[in-house]
Amino acid sequence: MAPPKAILFDIGGVCVISPFQAILDYEKDNNIPIGWINHSIQKGPHDAGAWQLIERGECVLDDEWFAAFKKQLSVPEHWSAYWVKHGQGKEGESVPKVPDIDSKRLFWDMMRTSRRPDPFMYPALKALRPHFILGALSNTVAFPDGILDDKGVLFSKGLTHDPPPNPHAADSHDIQTCFDVFISSAHVGLRKPDPRAYDLAVRELGKISEERGSGPVTAQDVLFLDDIGVNLKWAKKSGLRTIKVNLGDTKVAVRELERETGMSLLLGEDKAKL
Length: 274
Hints:
The chain has 12 helices and 5 strands. The chain has helices at residues 19-29, 36-42, 50-55, 63-72, 76-85, 103-113, 121-128, 185-188, 195-211, 229-237, 250-261, 268-272; strands at 6-9, 133-138, 181-184, 222-226, 241-244. It holds the Pfam family Hydrolase. GO terms for molecular function: hydrolase activity. Keywords: Hydrolase. This is Epoxide hydrolase-like protein.
């Protein structure tokens, strides 16, 4: 296939370290079955789940929300079905109590983890920027000014770059500077996998292309990277080309980007380890 006209990126788990890593660490540290937290988040419900509401900007990040998030992670019916389905127990056996999850600690662990640029994808972004129209389509949270984390520390959503000799040590802490288009779910009121979010992204990328004299952009001209299967499923249904970014495998995804773009994006040492 011809190279894409535009490349669209998810942020967490693609351009920065995945918040799913913080979830995995929390489950391991607290003897919670691996995958339960993500399962309970995805169960929503879509129209009223605490996680879904905060990512659409329909509520405020405050103690009331943390209580609602804890409730979403503690639905007995969801837990019982998960326990049986995933081989933790057998039908008819007693199911243990729903895990008691510290929703505030979990959330802030996720946010702190996802401030670190991914060591493979972030340099690829920098290399791609002069040659392609780059966009971000991310399910996000709007942070109130002056919000403190679970440790009482003023939270900053900016990137945390490693010091020199890291070649990106002096880069901006605002990841939006890496993109021509940045679409935040909490600010536009649409979250993936809503097809309208992909349509919006294609339109905005098309505007940039038209401004640069490169003509229109269709969904088929856009390559989308995400780490969540359902987001990619609906992106494909919307006509976008896709790359799945698996947890801990961003280097493999960058190799796929090389094939799609025809550019060399991995350094020699990184390439040799693939």
